[in-house]
Amino acid sequence: MAYPVDGIVLIDKEPEITSHDVVQKVRFALNTKKGYRVGHAGTLDPFATGLLIILLGQATRLFDYLVAGEKMYEAVMTLGVETDTLDGAGRVVSTTPVPDFPTSHIRQEAMALVGEIEQVPPVYSAIKIDGKRAYALARNGVAVPMKSRRVKVSALDILGVDLPRLSLRVRCSSGTYIRSLAADLGRILGPGGHLSALRRIQSGGFHVDDALGSEEISREQREILGQRTLSLREALPGIREVQVDGELARKVRHGYQPSGDDLLRSSHSTRTEPGCDAEYTPERSIKLIHQEKLIAVLTVNHGGGGRYERVSIDKVFS
Question: What is the domain class of 240-316 according to CATH?
Answer without folding.
Answer: mainly beta
